[in-house]
TrEMBL record:
Name the record gives this protein: histidine kinase
Upper taxonomic lineage: Bacteria, Pseudomonadati, Bacteroidota, Cytophagia, Cytophagales
Top-tier EC class: transferase
One Pfam family, short name: HATPase_c
PANTHER family: HYBRID SIGNAL TRANSDUCTION HISTIDINE KINASE C, TWO-COMPONENT HISTIDINE KINASE
Originating species: Hymenobacter rigui
Positions of the Response regulatory domain: 691-806
Length: 943
């Protein structure tokens, strides 16, 4: 009986052995992936990226669902994934509105949702992973401009209407605006999943044979473009696609084989989505918005990327084989362990059923030998597992090295782009500073010379003095012309010069220019003739642009034509009336054959006579301006017989090159004198009392401006923006003359701070600057400047501008004083002076019952000093603060007197008068009647 009990106890202990030796399973996470459609290489690449990332995380289970482009089915599948216990959802929606209810359901259940490639209208998502479609379109535009050298026609192939197609189209069109010489010949709506583009694209290419590039929104559509171009015999057309996937027939292979010029790599984002999901599951920090970058794949990097993709695929296959082998070995190990446990149980059963001790002992020895053999097998399996883990570690290190190489290449591309941007910015800064440095000394030369030639003492000049001053003025203007040509060169180089065309008569326009050269031609004894077979040739032209072109051509013709020679200017229609042609023919020395290829190059100077040395910029500038006008400048020449320069211009221009109806912003300068708007000639009551603050960092210009203003005004000077702003706040001057480019605080910042401060918002500002570009003038006016004078400027014009602004300020002060009598209702966007008056009035009304209200308290409440408030009120209203307070009190008294509920004495106390008699005296002095009489007239209806 005891032996039986021992056997049963041994069976029980041995039965517990498997349960005690089985290791607990690692924690398993479930990630649900719902996609609208799985067909297509790009979608397959997305899923492959997820699986590739998950191959390093065997504890993660991926649950995938394919809705096959059915939004209702995708909603149900998301519900099913939530029911299946998904702890994180990755959703690739097809429609942004359809999946919002399903996203909201996941949010209520506390399941984070990662949106992949598309967004929804629901804000309750944990993270977004996707590419920058707008950036992809912009990258395609910039690369197209680089390929076409910023000149030519392109065609765009969009996908079927969707948010992706719209964003790529908008990015492409917006970026092309920076390249005005690139025109979109047409746009075709294609199909993301088809290459059939032959009818529409064939027609468009035949209608626009000048087309040199086609941008397709996908590599599959780019393949269709390649087939059409091959059938049309147009191998010269560049093709740009989007996706840049590896594999047979995809974008990487197309670029490598020359079927497309480039492809924009648009990452499917599968790996990134899984990485974000893992951070969420492990409660690690993550980015909510994960915008994937775009790179251009062309012939320079296609082979490298193809090799990297092939190597990555090979390594991934190796990893999968190693993992399959690992799972096989683990299964073998589990099976052998089960067999071992079965043998143990069988042995124990045999012991229980055996009747003899010697059989039990023999069986035990046999079982022990079997266990030893199994242990050796287990050791071998463990060693194989260790070896496989080491191989996996090596593969992971190799993958990490490949990723580092890819990141290094991407960083190198980004560094090159940043370097190009910095070089462009350096060029812009060089030209801006160069023009400023030249225009400042020109101001100090041309200003005094102009004053001596046209001032009160000009009659006392000797003929030799007048001749020398005229020589100085002409050469200074020549230097100014060279500066302007340099600035025009800078504008053309960076694409900042714009055409603003109006419909003009080209015949009349050219005739006017020719007439200006007739006196110089007579002096040089050169016959200058003008010929036009038609009396008028209307066309869309920009006079400011073409004036510089024909001026250079006529100047060169006159310079190189000797006395007794002839210059002929002919205006005639061309290209069957679609264009107009202007020819300038001379009988000069002609152009040598070795100089002809370089005649339009910047700063090129061929063989020139000693008296005709030029800068080498005129013809280059003329050609750039003609091209900007969508025209052509050509020439023909024979040495010893003369030259002919021909300008051919289209009579019609695109709408974007035509000027709007709004008047262009103008700046005042010495070489382009303008007349100020008509106004009252009278300035302040005493002009000599007006205080003018001059802020200029150049000592000579500062002293020059101050010296010209001191005979008529009180003048205070500052050498930098910070000091000038402090003086303006302390002194509250009547007007400020300020330079734009100053160290530290610039003139634009000074004006912006003056306008933002109630203490100085009313002060008129005249800006002095060497920056004459229209966008820079707009920037100055937007900052709050009243007048914009470009250097060099006329001193007399500056003085009249100061007087006119002070007179306008006096009229505005009178208008505000009249408004104060009625205290109008505040407007939605009041003038800064009106806003100040409203705030001052509100502060006085808040303390209306106080008889001891002081000016110091009122100034402190508004953030002014006593003197600042006094000068502000005097400048805005022309009255004292005490008179203003009394006006507010008496105006409020009129309102209270119309109400019978208060006595006259009570009304006096309500508006801050301690004495009834003083109130009556003040009221009668203001309105001509006593308070009681005012109430009686109001009650009887008498005015």
């Amino acid at each position: 009986m005891r032996k039986k009990h021992h056997i049963l106890l041994s069976l029980g202990l041995l039965g517990l052995l498997p349960a005690c030796t089985v290791a607990p399973a690692p924690p398993t996470y479930r990630i649900g992936f719902s996609q609208s459609v799985s067909s297509g290489d790009w979608r397959q690449a997305m899923l492959a990226g997820m699986k590739r990332e998950l191959s390093f995380h065997p504890e993660i289970q991926l649950l995938t669902r394919d809705a096959q482009s059915n939004s209702l089915r995708q909603q149900q599948q998301i519900h099913d994934l939530l029911q299946a216990g998904a702890e994180v959802l990755i959703v690739a929606p097809n429609e942004e509105h359809a999946l919002s209810p399903a996203i909201e359901e996941a949010y209520r259940r506390g399941v984070p949702v990662i949106l992949l490639d598309h967004r929804t209208t629901s804000p309750h998502y944990a993270a977004y992973v996707g590419g920058d479609n707008t950036g992809a379109g912009a990258s395609a535009a910039r690369y197209a401009a680089q390929l076409l050298r910023q000149h030519g026609q392109v065609i765009e192939i969009t996908g079927t209407p969707s948010l992706v197609a719209n964003e790529r189209h908008q990015g492409f069109v917006q970026a092309l605006k920076a390249f005005p010489h690139i025109r979109v010949a047409g746009t075709i709506v294609g199909d993301w999943g088809s290459t059939s583009l032959q009818p529409a694209l064939t027609k468009l290419l035949r209608e626009n044979p000048e087309t040199r590039l086609v941008f397709a929104h996908s590599d599959l559509m780019a393949q269709g473009v390649y087939e059409v171009c091959r059938k049309l015999g147009r191998p010269d057309i560049r093709i740009i696609g989007v996706d840049g996937l590896a594999g047979k027939g995809n974008g990487l292979e197309m670029v490598q084989q020359g079927r497309s010029t480039a492809s924009l790599f648009y990452s499917p984002g599968g790996e990134e989505a899984i990485r974000v999901a893992l951070r969420i599951l492990h409660h690690q920090a993550y980015e909510r918005e994960n915008i994937l970058g775009t790179i251009v794949i062309d012939s320079t990097n296609a082979l490298t990327l193809q090799q990297q993709a092939a190597k990555l695929t090979s390594q991934q296959e190796g990893i999968e084989q190693q993992q399959l082998l690992l799972r096989t070995l683990q299964a073998t190990y589990a099976s052998q362990r089960t067999v071992l446990y079965g043998l143990a149980v069988s042995l124990l059963a045999a012991v229980g059923l055996g009747a003899s001790a010697w059989r039990a002992a023999r069986n035990n020895r046999r079982i022990n030998r079997e266990l030893a053999r199994q242990n050796k097998a287990n050791d071998a399996i463990n060693q194989e597992l260790v070896r496989q883990n080491a191989a996996n570690d090596a593969i992971n290190r190799q993958l990490s090295t490949q990723n580092e190489e890819i990141r290094a290449q991407r960083n190198q591309i980004a560094d090159l782009a940043e370097q190009a941007r910095r070089e462009t910015e350096a060029k812009l800064r060089f030209f801006t500073n160069f023009s400023h440095e030249l225009r400042t000394p020109l101001t100090l030369i041309m200003g005094p010379v102009e004053e001596m030639l046209t001032g009160h003492n000009s009659a006392t000049l000797q003929p030799t003095q007048r001749h020398d001053l005229g020589l100085i003025r002409r050469n200074t203007q020549r230097l100014l012309q060279l500066v302007n040509q340099l600035l025009d060169f800078r504008k053309i180089e960076v694409g900042k010069m714009a055409v603003q065309a109006h419909q003009e008569d080209v015949v009349a326009f050219v005739r006017e220019l020719v007439e200006t050269f007739e006196p110089a031609a007579r002096v040089q004894q050169v016959a200058l003739t003008f010929a036009a077979p038609e009396p008028a040739l209307p066309a869309w032209i920009d006079r400011n642009v073409l004036d510089k072109v024909f001026f250079n051509l006529l100047s060169n013709a006159l310079k190189y034509t000797p006395g007794g020679g002839r210059i002929t200017v002919r205006v005639q229609p061309a290209e069957e009336g679609r264009a107009v042609q202007v020819q300038v023919t001379d009988t000069g020395r002609g152009i040598r054959a070795q100089d002809s290829p370089h005649i339009f190059e910047w700063f090129y100077q061929g063989e020139q006579p000693a008296t005709g040395k030029g800068s080498g910029m005129g013809l280059a500038l003329a050609q750039g301006l003609v091209r900007l006008h969508q025209g052509q400048l050509t020439f023909s020449s024979q040495v010893g017989q003369g030259s002919t320069f021909t300008v051919t211009l289209p009579r019609e221009l695109p709408t974007e090159l035509r000027a709007t109806d709004a008047a262009p912003l103008q700046a005042f300068s010495l070489d382009e004198p303008l007349v100020l708007p008509a106004g009252d000639a009278e300035g302040p009551a005493s002009e000599a009392e007006a205080l003018v603050l001059v802020i200029e960092d150049n000592t000579d210009v500062n002293e020059f401006v101050a010296r010209k203003l001191r005979p008529s005004f009180r003048v205070q000077s500052a050498a930098d923006g910070k000091t000038g702003l402090q003086l303006a706040t302390d002194l509250i001057p009547d007007l400020i003359v300020c330079d734009v480019m100053m160290p530290g605080l610039s003139g634009l910042e000074v004006v912006a701070r003056l306008r933002a401060d109630w203490r100085t918002s009313h002060i008129p500002v005249i800006m002095l600057t060497a920056r004459n570009a229209p966008e820079q003038q707009v920037e100055g006016v937007q900052a709050g400047a009243d007048v914009y004078l470009t250097k060099p400027f006329n001193p007399a014009f500056l003085l009249e501008s100061v007087r006119t602004l002070l007179a306008n300020r006096a009229r505005q002060r009178e208008h505000l004083s009249r408004q104060l009598l009625t205290l109008p209702e505040p407007t939605a966007a009041p003038h800064p002076d009106q806003s100040f008056i409203q705030a001052l009035t509100a502060q006085v009304e808040a303390d209306l019952t106080r008889t001891d209200l002081t000016v110091e308290e009122l100034a402190h409440a508004l953030g002014f000093s006593r003197m600042q408030l006094y000068r502000k009120v005097k400048a805005v209203l022309g009255t004292s603060i005490t008179d203003f307070i009394q006006s507010v009190r008496l105006q409020k008294a009129c309102e209270l007197l119309r109400d019978d509920s208060l006595s006259v004495t009570a009304v006096a106390y309500e508006v801050g008068y301690a004495s009834h008699s003083y109130f009556s005296t003040s009221f009668k002095a203001r309105y001509g009647v006593a308070p009681s009489e005012f109430r009686t007239r109001h009650q009887t209806g008498v005015s």
